[in-house]
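> example.struct
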């Protein structure tokens, strides 16, 4: 497995790979490290479907707001490289911040509407940071296919829309949410949770399942589904809910009645840790 920390080095690796296999498909799996089974599932999908897999590890400062967890975000690089090797990644790009952002960088990528709702409403500028770093990583690696997790539902929608709007020649794949055996969605931020907080956090999964069960039992009115959502979440007062909603799966627009693909999304704070989760509502 090759390891690169500079843009010039990873570009050399990619150039070499393109010369070796001009028709080969190059995959990118962007991550912030602290890798877990969710990340590994993306690498495994990339390994199955592509010829050359590049994983990137970069805790992107522009997607954190002041006061968020940028400084304490876990950075276990040695273990992360081992996880990439075990997933048969071909190359890892793990640049330092100044390699990605010159001190006088002033160009950002931002979308108009999608970042104003849900996650974007609670984390201003978050998606500008995401769209910018993903564009940069796409320009650096020039992948054919990019792998993202359904866990960050709004993020993968935004990246799909950005690729379409800017004609970026990258196919976006979204992989299912990987969960702990008890249902908690895997997240690099789970390490922040105390034992008590961790068991409180399970209410997110229980609430999503309650919505899904009610939908499958025939309820299609979102107001009713959102009532169930809120009712289950309220059973756990340590969990401070930012939003718990049912939306159109491709636009995240509000719905009165579910007629096509829909998704239930939740974000909540458990102690100092903010968690997100979602479930597609399929019958
Ligand atoms: P992060 O390191 O948190 O930026 O995540 C990197 C990628 O891994 C994103 O596309 C996430 O959506 C994806 N991811 C994170 N957690 C999970 C999970 N539990 N299951 C599937 N994908 C995930």
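> example.seq
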């Amino acid at each position: 497995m090759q390891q690169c920390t500079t843009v010039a080095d990873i570009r050399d690796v990619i150039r070499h790979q393109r010369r070796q296999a001009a028709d080969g498909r190059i995959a990118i799996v962007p991550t912030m490290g602290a890798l877990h089974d969710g990340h590994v599932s993306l690498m495994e999908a990339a390994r199955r479907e592509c010829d050359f897999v590049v994983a990137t590890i970069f805790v992107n400062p522009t997607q954190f707001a002041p006061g968020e967890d940028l400084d304490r975000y876990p950075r276990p690089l040695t273990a992360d490289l081992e996880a990439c090797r075990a997933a048969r990644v071909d190359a890892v790009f793990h640049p330092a911040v100044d390699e990605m952002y010159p001190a006088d960088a002033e160009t950002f990528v931002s979308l108009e509407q999608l970042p104003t709702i849900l996650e974007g409403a609670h984390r201003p500028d978050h998606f500008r940071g995401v769209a910018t770093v993903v564009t940069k990583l796409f320009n650096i690696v020039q992948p054919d296919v990019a792998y993202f997790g359904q866990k960050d539902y709004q993020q993968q929608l935004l990246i799909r829309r950005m690729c379409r709007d800017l004609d970026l020649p990258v196919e976006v794949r979204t992989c299912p949410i990987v969960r702990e055996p008890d249902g908690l969605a895997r997240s690099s931020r789970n390490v922040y949770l105390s034992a008590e907080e961790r068991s409180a956090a399970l209410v997110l999964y229980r609430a999503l399942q309650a919505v899904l069960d009610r939908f499958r039992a025939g309820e299609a009115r979102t107001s009713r589904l959102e009532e169930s959502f809120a009712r289950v979440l309220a059973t756990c007062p340590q969990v401070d809910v930012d939003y718990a909603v049912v939306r159109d799966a491709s636009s995240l627009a509000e719905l009165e009645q579910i007629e096509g693909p829909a998704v239930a999304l939740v974000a909540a704070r458990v102690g100092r840790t903010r968690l997100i989760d979602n479930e597609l509502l399929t019958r």
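> remarks
The chain has a mean pLDDT of 98.
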